[in-house]
Amino acid sequence: MIGPQRLLRFKIGKTPAERDRLVAYLVRTAYRNVPYYRDMMDRAGVDPAAIRSAAELRRLPITTKRALLDTSENGFLHRRAVPKRCHRVSTSGYTGYLLTIYYSWPEAYYRRAMLLLAMGRNARLSWPVSLVHVGARSDQMKRDLVQRLGFVRVTKVHRELPVAEQAAAMSGIRAQIIEGTPSHLELLAEQVMRQGVAVPRPRLVVAYGEVLHSHQAALIEAVFGTRVANYYNCEEVGNIAWSCPIRRDVLHVNHDACVLEVVSEDGAPVEPGEEGRVVLTSLFGTTMPFLRYEVGDRARLLPRGTEPCACGHRGDSISLEVARDEDFLVLPDGRRISPRRPVVAVLAAALRTQGLTDVFADVIRGFQIIQETVDQVIVRAVRGRETREGIESEIAKGFAAIHPQLRCRVEWVDAIEPDPSGKVKKVLSKVAPRRDAG
Q1: Which residues contact 229 (CB under 8 A, 6 or more apart)?
Q2: Can you tell me the distance from the alpha carbon of 383 to that of 205, in angstroms, rounded to the nearest whole number?
Q3: pLDDT tens digit string along 104-127?
Q4: DSSP alpha helix (H) spans, 378-426
Q5: Fold adopted by 329-429
Q6: Cα(417)–Cα(423) distance, integer angstroms
Q7: How far apart are CA 40 and CA 191, in angstroms?
Q8: Which CATH number fits domain 123-226: 3.90.25, 3.40.470, 2.20.200, 3.40.50?
Q9: Could you read off the pLDDT of 44-61 as tens digits, one per residue?
Q10: Under CATH, what is the fold of the domain 4-110+234-322?
Q11: Which of 78, 189, 225, 230 has the fewest beta carbons closer than 10 A?
């Protein structure tokens, strides 16, 4: 028999009381079924039955990506989970380390639905939703569950195409939403202006995965003739927050997807308006639970008034202080490319050495790409649980595919050290860009 709390995970519009009941259920379930959390609570002397609300989550220690990576796969998954039957995604490694996330198919479907509903907070959408994904990999051809059910029609503009061809392809596409990272959207917008291409006027442009700077937002809005909304997402829980339709610098927390805490260095909650570490608890994932999970970003929890936001949101709101902000790679011919493309070159190399095509393998645990000159890149990499010969040459091939003059050297290190802000830039370029390059 399916219990009410199991179904409550997938409710849209959870009340505070329902979130509290759900937190209590998720903590008990994780303790009974996930060795990592059982050991963690036992070591900390935490009785899972004593956690009965979201406010009491602070009794749990904070979990990090690195702690999960130090645990075997069976240690952080539900004891009944069958990895081969799960939907799997991989983090992009913007905290310095990579992790594969496992979902049941209902969880994966709900996660995608939460993102679509969050998009609807900034634009009136009609079903089926037509969406253009800018910056997709050419191997991302599988149709996910939402697409098969016909709720979403996705057109992918592949990042391997020259930006000029991407801009030309956009002229023949009609869509309600255009989505992508700020760096991909910026490059595309620049090229559209340079070529004078007539592009569709969507109802919304969605930026995610990196910091959205004001100059990028202004350019993208001018080219596509519509609002750019910033979405704070992560692979572990999906949509964390969306930008307010009225005040773009304010992000409204998605209380259906997660409990968000902003805490000090010692894990204690900070006062509204004070900067702290972002810690998340997934409200729907039991296959691979995330309880008080640190994502590596910093934010401020904004003071709540007695009235809801002018846009109608009644929950918590944050402002991001430090998030994923990467450098563009500058090619020998002067062109700039999105930081996501060299990151994918490293990930794809690891996949090829394992013979996989859909999920990151544990060959490289973490990495950082440093561009020393226009034709020289260094990849600082941390070895994973498994060793494969030829990974260095595969990575070099990936960068040569980006540009034939781009040389790559792999340096194996014990750890990727963060900068003073606590973040690890995955792409760090020491080359000044030529803004006039196409």
Answers
A1: 119, 122, 123, 204, 205, 206, 207, 242, 243, 245, 248
A2: 38
A3: 999 999 999 999 999 999 999 988
A4: 391-402
A5: GMP Synthetase; Chain A, domain 3 (3.30.300)
A6: 9
A7: 51
A8: 3.40.50
A9: 999 999 999 999 999 999
A10: Rossmann fold (3.40.50)
A11: 225
